Amino acid sequence: MPLCRDLLFQTRKKRKKSKKSTLTKHNSTSLKQQLSPQHQQQPQEEDTEEGFSLRASAPSHKYGVQPLGNLYFSPSSFNSRNSGLGALQILTDELVLEILGFLDGAHLGVLATVSKSFYVFTNHEPLWRNLVLDNLVGGFLYNGSWKSTYVAAFYPSFACAGSLVLNVRDFYSDYLFQSWLCANLEMKSEWLERDNITRRKGISIEDFVLNFEEPNRPVLLEGCLDNWVALEKWNRNYLIETCGDVKFSVGPVEMKLEDYFRYSDLVREERPLYLFDPKFGEKVPKLGLEYDVPVYFKEDLFSVLGNERPDYRWIIIGPAGSGSSFHIDPNSTSAWNAVIKGSKKWVLFPPEVVPPGVHPSPDGAEVACPVSIVEWFMNFYGATKKWKKKPIECVCKAGEVIFVPNGWWHLVINLEDSIAITQNFVSRRNLLNVLDFLKKPNASMLVSGTRDRVNLYEKFRKAIEATFPGTIDQLMSKAEEKKSQPKKLTFWESVSDSNVGAFKFSF
């Protein structure tokens, strides 16, 4: 087995922390600091902080790429990456791939014959993934790799050529290796063990409002889905049979469920495509009838807009490793997320705390963060161990619902094949926040889920005043009263870590 894979398994109890890489559009980690120079595979000990384990079915790197640190243990000290690029070797791997991203499939294929180095770079899967997603918006039939998928779709007579693979010796690249590493790593136990969210079962609506919604605190609710038909019936076969040829949103493309499950079964990449469809209830009305909004979230004031309301509910389906990088939910809404099949790891930070490794623009319109979720765990999760107040974390399993208050940063990763329903909503406790958000000077850049970003504030306010006369004025009066009262500690200032248990999760 190649050295690049063997290095993953060595661990040391007292090891210096690896230096975090500077965040760029495509963050790159110096893997020579994360991987050990030992050839022997060693079992990982429970008290070690470093060292990673690959998934049991993980293959070696497809083209033989090794982390740069391995070059220092090579007798020849020869990197075919540099010799094959010629004068372009001074460019970073990210910049080389950025340039190659302007080429079409045919030109990438020709360039692959120039040298071993160009062969590896031009076969980088994200290049072909972008070509497929840009050109096959009506859906695709995944063929084991993105390159094979593209070739089969546009050059069917050369379909077999798309699957040919040459192993390149002495090719060292942290950036290319990390892409493979993030796609094949097991989630470390220390990334899953912290479970410090408040859990409740059978609480009253008044209890929920008083202790969680009004103070804007997350909570995991148990037993809310017991009567859902979806919890009993929704599995792969049922959904495929029920939905038939209906296509759902998968990133920028539309796919039938049968085709998406084919993709999710075969793919192994650091950012698997996520089925995330806001119109599933309209496309397949039966699905909308097989779940009920939990009683705590029945008040949804955006409903006064009728068909003009922003997107608010989604069916979410994805394989292990898929998920959502750090973000704040749209339009300053709160949300609930119910797991029907599988399990999800959540990491949440309150509005006043930007997660490590995340860089929002000053106006909040854009967020720069690591390429993949696993990359964030590798490079930034450890920093939170030293924080006096830890992020809120949990594993949400089938039958459980998490409440995500407005403004909270959150990351979600599926730990296994998962199916979920999520909805964003506006209640009276959050109405003023939403109105303030919708009337921001740059609202046309920030508002999402609607075709009319410019007039949403006026439409929503007028509809609220017509449907619930005096409500806005009453809420504003209460808000002024609160301002005159002594300021309470924020959640981040008052939360205690005393309930962080030694919860261990396995599946």
Architecture blueprint of SSEs:
Elements (H helix, E strand, L loop, with lengths): L2 H4 L73 H6 L7 H8 L4 H7 L4 H7 L2 H11 L10 H9 L19 H11 L4 H4 L6 E3 L3 H9 L5 E4 L6 H5 L2 H8 L3 E4 L2 E4 H10 L8 E3 L2 H4 L1 H5 L23 E6 L4 E5 L6 E8 L1 E7 L9 E2 L6 E2 L4 H7 L12 E6 L2 E5 L4 E6 L3 E8 L5 H8 L4 H4 L9 H12 L3 H14 L6 H4 L13
Parallel strand pairs: 1-2
Antiparallel strand pairs: 2-13, 3-4, 5-6, 6-15, 7-14, 8-13, 8-15, 9-12, 9-14, 10-11
Helix pairs in contact: 6-7
Key structural traits:
alpha+beta, Jelly Rolls, 2 domains, seven-stranded mixed sheet, four-stranded antiparallel sheet, 31% helix, 14% strand
What is the top-level CATH class of the largest domain? Mainly Beta
- What is the total number of structural domains? 2
CATH topology description of the largest domain? Jelly Rolls
Fraction in beta strands: 5-15%
Under CATH, the homologous superfamily of the largest domain reads: Cupin
Stretches where pLDDT is under 50 for at least 5 consecutive residues are 1-49, 496-507
Describe this structure in words.
- By secondary structure, the protein is of the alpha+beta class.
- It folds into 2 domains: 3-14 and 22-187, no CATH class; 190-494, Cupin (Jelly Rolls).
- Helix content is 31%, strand content 14%.
- It contains 21 helices and 15 strands.
- It has helices at 3-6, 80-85, 93-100, 105-111, 116-122, 125-135, 146-154, 174-184, 189-192, 205-213, 229-233, 236-243, 257-266, 280-283, 285-289, 373-379, 431-438, 443-446, 456-467, 471-484, 491-494, and strands at 199-201, 219-222, 247-250, 253-256, 275-277, 313-318, 323-327, 334-341, 343-349, 359-360, 367-368, 392-397, 400-404, 409-414, 418-425.
- It has a 7-stranded mixed sheet. The chain has a 4-stranded antiparallel sheet with strand order 7-14-9-12, with no helix packed on it.
- Strand 10 (359-360) and strand 11 (367-368) form a beta hairpin.
- Helix 6 (125-135) packs across helix 7.
- The longest helix has 14 residues, at 471-484.
- It starts with a helix and ends in a 13-residue tail after the last helix.
- It is found in: Nucleus.
- This is JmjC domain-containing protein.
- Residues 24-43 have a biased composition (Low complexity).
